[in-house]
Amino acid sequence: MDTTYLKKFYKKKHDDKINALFLADVISKQEKDVLLNRTLELDSDTANHMIENYVGNYSMPLGVAMNYIIDQEELVVPMAIEEPSVIAASSFAAKIIGSAGGFKTTVTGRMMIGQLTLKAVPNLEVAEQKIKEAKKDILSRANEAHPSIVKRGGGAKNLEVRILTDDTNNNIPTYLSVHVHISTQEAMGANIVNTMMESIAPYLEELTQGKALLRILTNYATECLATSTCVIPAHKLKTGEFSGEEVRDRIIEATQIATIDPYRAVTHNKGIMNGVDAVVLASGNDWRAIEAGVHAYASRSGQYRSLTSWTKNDAGDLVGELTLPLPVGTVGGSISIHPGAKLAHSIMGHPNAPKLERIIVSVGLAQNFAAVRALVTEGIQKGHMGLHARSLAISAGAKGDHIQQVADILKHSKHKNLQRAKNILLNILEEFEK
Ligand code: MEV
């Protein structure tokens, strides 16, 4: 990638942006033509086969975040999102973090977890023991149900048993929950996991004398974690009347509030998910699965808390860290069908699944940094209103160059609402016709 073509990317006109991505070697000639011809569309025939009762496509803007340096590699990150200012904030945060050495990441095992719950087990302890003794047998039966993933080096690798006690009913031990840890390689692997869990159910019923109730993957992917960290020297944080040290300390305090107060933690984490979801969606992955798992992970201590930590090191630098369960894939589902998802993978240089996790968790950390930094300094509305003004201009009916003209006047108006945008547009059009 040649980033010289990507300088001041946000200032370029739409077609020039696409051309710059081509010149920088981020997209191919064919992808450039698709974007220039505005033909990045899911065709209705394919879509009709993807879901039931299909009636049309629901579009979402696809943009690119700039300035990312992740594990010393420069990357352009595709984001599908309707909310103004997320991509601008992402690129801004990545620029500051990039100038301080970028993001450093790690990923753990990449194991999905299949869960089988058994009810009416006559003796839970005895059943637990029997399952543990039959571990090898259970894993090989699971693997027989999906030989192709085993051939690719994946498959069922480990097993855990949990007795579930009913805390709504005097903590009575009630169900047996069997977890199978399954390597699904490049896939998110829901189908692989579910097939395996269904296949071992009769054997587990026989072993435990219980009845299998649920046989499904859990989205609480605690065996598939990705972590991103960054270190930002305080002097890089200086803004307006705030010194770098003040901004650093305010970010640390704001994160402390999100650690102790669920009301703030939810909003704080929503800011993280602005970035995470946008890349998960662009890459054709199941963002509901990621959302569900991430919020459960935020509650792992028993209270819902901030997912990021911001602290300072001995040198006085701001140190950020984010860990997320990220069971994303690079094959399967809509990834190889949806033209937007295919383009997104190409923009990122066709990462494998662990690398995609590294990218997503870094975007989450950057997004949180941008949001909290703005909140504790100039406030969020300044940045938001600029882009919001453009949305209002479009809603008022402005087209082409008039969108920016209306937005510019609106930004300096006392009342920034739709009616004001309509009046401004009317004035511009009248001027135009004179
Ligand atoms: C808005 O989409 C996200 C923020 O509310 C996140 C935050 O408060 O940290 C700005």
Automatic annotation (TrEMBL):
Name of this protein: 3-hydroxy-3-methylglutaryl coenzyme A reductase
EC number(s) given by UniProt: 1.1.1.88
Stretches assigned to coiled coil: none
PROSITE patterns in UniProt: HMG_COA_REDUCTASE_3, HMG_COA_REDUCTASE_4
Listed pathway(s): Metabolic intermediate metabolism; (R)-mevalonate degradation; (S)-3-hydroxy-3-methylglutaryl-CoA from (R)-mevalonate: step 1/1
Keyword NAD attached: yes
Keywords of this entry: NAD, Oxidoreductase
Organism: Alkalibacterium gilvum
Catalysed transformations (reactions): (R)-mevalonate + 2 NAD(+) + CoA = (3S)-3-hydroxy-3-methylglutaryl-CoA + 2 NADH + 2 H(+)
Broad class of enzyme this protein falls into: oxidoreductase
Organism domain of life: Bacteria
Gene Ontology biological-process annotations: coenzyme A metabolic process
